[in-house]
């Protein structure tokens, strides 16, 4: 018997003033989450009921896909992470600690190394492969900017799964099964999402797909078209549309541009269009533990450098914008006055493909307060390598021939083909069909479990509160006797609770001795799919049913309530499928 007076649901009239995201605001106000410290949250009873339902959906779909659940420790010895090279590469996001014997550990942000170690020591033959294992576990990442409530925190629950195969066919089989399982999971949870091409980041590998839920507060930019193309901004490409300029190369000249530190300021000072300015950005690429190399990246002034594309092209562990000291050391000037003319061989120069068609460009002169005009490739400066190093822009033509559009999205899932990167470093080998020792070929699969709550709330909440799909709502029906002091209303509420519970529905009864307005406002905040109000017509055996999502209300006889609830919940489920 679920009575609201006995459950911890600390609703609030107002959210804290620093709350930005709708999901954050409503989950705090509705008493779902409580902040312990920055980026660290408690999940109160209603939120935990939602999480358990999400977990159950995940387990059912992973079972269908032939994956097996297990559990790894969150506290991991640092040796494995040093073997894989990620102990330093993961950077400040990695929690590092020591025990009383000064042995080094990390708090797991993800578990590629640990799963690889277990499979390395447990599987010796291809006959046991492919194999997919996963866990549902809290992860720890020292985010520098925790924000939007549980959307980006320092501790969060995640599904992380891993496939192990003896050959590419086994990897493909596991990858496709997981991709389908993920689609099933997000469909059942009630999310609208796009499957997009993505970058693998610090995890590594290729053939990476991201499941992203469009939402205003999403920190990822989804690049998509009406033709079906979809990619993360880091990965997106467009058809090259540059036209070779035909002007004759003019004499290189150096001009004073006092106070011009940006492309727009330089363009104004020189009286030229920003597209004719050569944007020059100096980076330091980490190629090894103590090996940092300067890289100058060139592109049109109105384009933005895509650091992920540059990182992937260089194959470096990390890429950072050079400090002013490094800029002065390698180029002799400060950012805002940098350029490629006269740059020595110790600095690698990359240029975007669109730079190749430009003639008589303006660029920083590597002398503070000065720019060159009429700079040309080969005559005045070298380019070591051309490539696609820019962010695409809205309106450009995607590879599928349709115009590019942008929307924000929340990353809710990610799948990778890892290959043999971890198995090689950690010695995870099996005997193949021919009796040869081969490295296990891995796949990696992740879902942000607690993050899904934010994504669903962002897509469904309104100005009155949360609106949960029935598949993961904390309860199916919210029963509200208008006046809990009236015996006949409470008796009817208890009878209805019994009827609905026996029919398999989860019911919350608001038995609090509060004003009706308070109960209704809290009900809207909590966001249970259906509300049954017991009021003036209780004596006639009639109640009011309100659909939280649409606000529709209908009067129903108590004897018909169970059937009505079933019909309405099915309609909501069908509508959710149609809305995708």
List keywords for this structure.
BirA Bifunctional Protein, domain 2; protein biosynthesis; Rossmann fold; proline-tRNA ligase activity; 28% strand; globular; nine-stranded mixed beta sheet; five-stranded mixed beta sheet; 580 residues; YbaK protein; 14 helices; alpha+beta; 3 domains
Number of domains: 3
Low-confidence stretches: none
Helical fraction equals 25-40%
Main sheet?
A: 9 strands, mixed
Termini separation = 35 Å
Overall pLDDT metric: 94
- As a whole number of angstroms, the C-alpha radius of gyration is 29 Å
What fraction of the residues are assigned to beta strands by DSSP? Answer: 25-35%
| General shape | globular
CATH uppermost class of the largest domain: Alpha Beta
Number of strands: 29
CATH topology of the largest domain: BirA Bifunctional Protein, domain 2
Describe this structure in words.
The chain is α+β, with helices and mostly antiparallel strands. It has three domains: 4-236 and 405-458, 2-Layer Sandwich (BirA Bifunctional Protein, domain 2), CATH 3.30.930.10; 253-387, YbaK/aminoacyl-tRNA synthetase-associated domain (YbaK protein, Alpha-Beta Complex), CATH 3.90.960; 477-578, Anticodon-binding domain (Rossmann fold, 3-Layer(aba) Sandwich), CATH 3.40.50.800. It is built from 14 helices and 29 strands. Strands 3, 7, 8, 9, 10, 11, 12, 21 and 24 form a nine-stranded mixed β-sheet that branches. Strands 16-14-15-17-20 form a five-stranded mixed β-sheet. Strand 18 (361-364) and strand 19 (370-375) form a beta hairpin. Helix 1 (22-29) packs across helix 11 and helix 2 (45-64) runs antiparallel to helix 6 (168-189). The longest helix has 22 residues, at 168-189. The radius of gyration is 29 Å and the shape is globular. The model has no long low-confidence stretch (mean pLDDT 94).
């Amino acid at each position: 018997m679920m009575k609201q007076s006995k459950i911890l649901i600390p609703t609030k009239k107002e959210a804290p003033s620093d709350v930005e995201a709708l999901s954050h605001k409503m989950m705090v106000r509705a008493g779902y989450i409580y902040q312990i410290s920055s980026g660290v949250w408690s999940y109160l009873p209603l939120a935990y009921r939602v999480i358990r339902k999400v977990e159950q959906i995940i387990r059912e779909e992973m079972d269908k896909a032939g994956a097996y659940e297990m559990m790894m420790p969150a506290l991991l010895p640092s040796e494995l992470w040093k073997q894989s090279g990620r102990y330093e590469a993961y950077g400040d996001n990695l929690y590092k600690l020591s025990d009383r014997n000064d042995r080094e550990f990390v708090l797991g942000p993800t578990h590629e190394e640990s799963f690889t170690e277990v499979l390395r020591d447990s599987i010796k033959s291809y006959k046991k492969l492919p194999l997919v294992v996963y866990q549902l576990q809290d992860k720890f990442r020292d985010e520098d900017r925790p924000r939007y409530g549980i959307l980006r925190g320092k501790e969060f629950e995640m599904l992380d799964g891993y496939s192990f195969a003896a050959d590419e066919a086994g990897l493909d089989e596991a990858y496709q099964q997981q991709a389908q399982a993920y689609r099933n999971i997000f469909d059942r949870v009630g999310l609208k999402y796009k499957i997009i091409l993505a970058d693998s980041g610090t995890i590594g590998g290729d053939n990476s797909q991201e499941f992203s839920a469009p939402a205003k507060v999403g920190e990822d930019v989804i690049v998509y078209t009406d033709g079906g193309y979809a990619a993360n901004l880091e990965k997106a490409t467009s058809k090259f549309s540059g036209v070779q300029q035909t002007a004759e190369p003019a004499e290189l000249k150096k001009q004073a541009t006092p106070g011009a530190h940006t492309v727009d300021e330089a363009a104004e000072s020189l009286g030229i269009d920003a597209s004719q300015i050569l944007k020059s950005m100096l980076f330091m690429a980490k190629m090894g533990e103590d090996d940092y190399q300067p890289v100058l990246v060139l592109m049109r002034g109105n384009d933005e450098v895509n650091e992920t594309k540059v990182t992937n092209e260089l194959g470096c562990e990390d890429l950072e914008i050079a400090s002013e000291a490094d800029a002065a050391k390698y180029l002799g000037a400060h950012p805002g006055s940098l350029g490629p003319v006269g740059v020595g061989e110790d600095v690698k120069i990359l240029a975007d493909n669109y730079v190749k068609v430009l003639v008589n460009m303006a660029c920083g002169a590597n002398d503070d307060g000065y720019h060159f005009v009429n700079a040309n490739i080969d005559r005045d400066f070298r380019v070591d390598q051309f490539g696609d190093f820019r962010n695409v822009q809205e309106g450009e033509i995607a590879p599928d021939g349709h115009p590019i559009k942008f929307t924000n999205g929340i990353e809710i899932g990610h799948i990778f083909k890892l290959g043999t990167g971890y198995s090689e470093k950690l010695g995870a080998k099996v005997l193949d069909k021919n009796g040869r020792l081969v490295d296990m070929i891995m796949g990696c699969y992740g879902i942000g479990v607690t993050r899904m709550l934010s994504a669903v709330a962002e897509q469904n909440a309104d100005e009155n509160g949360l609106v949960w799909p029935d598949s993961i709502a904390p309860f199916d029906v919210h029963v509200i006797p208008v006046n809990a002091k009236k015996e006949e209303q409470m008796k009817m509420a208890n009878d209805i609770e019994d009827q609905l519970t026996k029919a398999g529905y989860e019911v919350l009864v608001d038995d609090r001795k509060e004003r009706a307005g308070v109960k209704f406002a809290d009900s809207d905040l909590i966001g249970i799919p259906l509300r049954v109000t017991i009021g003036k017509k209780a004596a006639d055996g009639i109640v009011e049913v309100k659909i939280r999502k649409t606000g529709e209300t209908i009067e129903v006889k108590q004897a018909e309530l169970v059937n009505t609830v079933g019909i309405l919940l099915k309609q909501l489920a069908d509508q959710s499928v149609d809305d995708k």
